[in-house]
Amino acid sequence: MTLVEGVWYFLESIKNPESLLGTASLSFAMTALWDDILHNDQLIQYVAPIAVDAALLEGVLMRTKDDPNASDVVNYAPFTLLPSVVSSSLLEQAYSVQQDFNLLVDEVSQNTAFLESTLASTIKVDDFTAQLFKIYRQVLKEGVTQTVVLGINRSDYMFDQETNSTPALKQVEINTIAASFGGLTSRTTAVHRHVLNVLGKFTEASKLLTNNPSKGIAMGIAKAWELYGSDRAVVMFLVEETQRNIFDQRCVENELWKRNIRVIRRRFKDVFEKASLGNDKRLHIDGEEVAVVYYREGYVPKSYNKQNWEARLLLERSRAVKCPDIATQLAGTKKVQQELSQPGTLEKLLPNKPEAVARIRATFTGLYSLEMDEEGDKMVAMAIADPERFVLKPQREGGGNNLYGGELKQVLEKIKDSPERTSYILMDKIRPLPALNYLLRAHSPLKISECVSELGIFGVYVRQGKDLIMNKHAGHLLRTKAVEHADGGVAAGVAVLDTPYVI
Ligand SMILES: Nc1ncnc2c1ncn2[C@@H]1O[C@H](COP(=O)(O)OP(=O)(O)OP(=O)(O)O)[C@@H](O)[C@H]1O
Ligand SMILES: N[C@@H](CCC(=O)N[C@@H](CS)C(=O)NCC(=O)O)C(=O)O
Ligand SMILES: [Mg+2]
């Protein structure tokens, strides 16, 4: 189709959308808000390249798989053609519980007895968690020198909905380390606004919420940097060897430069080779003192060899504000999430806060321990008998780690009598209703997909000693994936960036 033909189609579709409707007759329970567009092949062919150009213009970018460490050739980060519908009450609920979750994570991270008892059996069988825990114990033994705490997390939810019932906000998990895409999502709204405008949906375009998590995240880092109290010190982003998501990180970094806070990027390898602790365990690297270490790495076993573990230990022993510190990373494990759902646990951790407890608990779905006890035996048997009901989760981050269906059954059958099972938790599967959308991804054919979405809310808090200086939510991230993928986010190459269309 030529540009002139395209514009003609577009103008016609505004005057009379029905005239261009395709014949596809898929019916989905989710709103038919964009039905006039979704089934109109010509309109889709016309608008998809416009959307891609808008993403490139707005900076919704990722480096390529082939060249992950250079920006000479980059591509757009995957995103939906159209915003997905999100209920205003569920969005509000997710925002209103975020400060409670910040408090909860902070409490857990300070509660050694809770972390010790909750992770006791897990660390006997899971080497990665055990290594983290070893560092945690070592730092405690030596005495924590860090006086300022900075938490940046993202609590993720899906909208659970059995047919005909109202959807409920159910937490998938909370990410306490390297919670990503706050930068690119800040730029995705403008892309969707443009797409809707081009489609003649001016009113809908004007309703898209502004959203800027990278700014909120940077404000938290800036506050921690300020409280550290040395204006010569830098913020260090601890980054991976393979840095495909650098633009997302740059969004946060550039917000800091705007505040005249200097940022450096280093890998574990650099820390191992060049970092040292000076007076009062101040952290130095390449002649700079580091006030804040912001981890965008360090949450998967493959990030660590012997030297990188040593580098991690050095960072944790330092006075620098680690985001997260090792205790807060442990507070984000799946095992802790499961323990939090046990009756009475929230009440113990947040005494005198019954409203916060109720708000938090309302977002939990069934979470089950696989400890070597009667209850664990019962859950293993139940999951083997009905694997479609559950998700089996190891203590891992980064997407693509969970087990479902036949694989879940197979693994549980193999380890059901071994303590290895305690390295996993079991969770009820959340069942959102699918909606139709186009997932735009470089080098992929343009096709309509049945999709489900996941909403994340960013939370930021800063504590100095006992005083909570900052506790806020910092915006949202909506990600959408085709229903055939049970697991995986954007970084894992499964989900794409989206924008909520709130109704
Ligand atoms: N209980 C559940 N019901 C349905 N889907 C789930 C459930 N738990 C996880 N998932 C799916 O699996 C994905 C990964 O799960 P989860 O976030 O727990 O793992 P992760 O490895 O920590 O991922 P990430 O690094 O993206 O946070 C989720 O984004 C979601 O799509
Ligand atoms: N290291 C990369 C990826 C980090 C990452 O995968 N973070 C997880 C939490 S541990 C996440 O937020 N994933 C969201 C997604 O991939 O959709 C980065 O810093 O951007
Ligand atoms: Mg995670």
From TrEMBL:
Binds 1 Mg(2+) ion per subunit. Mg(2+) binds at residues 173, 175, 397. It catalyses: gamma-L-glutamyl-(2S)-2-aminobutanoate + glycine + ATP = ophthalmate + ADP + phosphate + H(+); gamma-L-glutamyl-L-cysteine + glycine + ATP = glutathione + ADP + phosphate + H(+). It is an enzyme of class 6 (ligase). GO terms for molecular function: ATP binding; glutathione binding; glutathione synthase activity; magnesium ion binding. One of its GO terms (cellular component) is cytosol. Keywords: ATP-binding, Glutathione biosynthesis, Ligase, Magnesium, Metal-binding, Nucleotide-binding. Substrate binds at residues 154, 177-180, 243-245, 249, 296-299, 479, 490-491. Its EC number is 6.3.2.3. ATP binds at residues 173, 334, 393-402, 404, 427-430, 454, 481, 487. InterPro entries: Glutathione_synthase, Glutathione_synthase_a-hlx, Glutathione_synthase_C_euk, Glutathione_synthase_N_euk, GSH-S_sub-bd_sf, GSH_synth_subst-bd, PreATP-grasp_dom_sf. Pathway: Sulfur metabolism; glutathione biosynthesis; glutathione from L-cysteine and L-glutamate: step 2/2. Belongs to the eukaryotic GSH synthase family. Homodimer. This is Glutathione synthetase. It comes from Eublepharis macularius. The lineage of its organism: Eukaryota, Metazoa, Chordata, Craniata, Vertebrata.
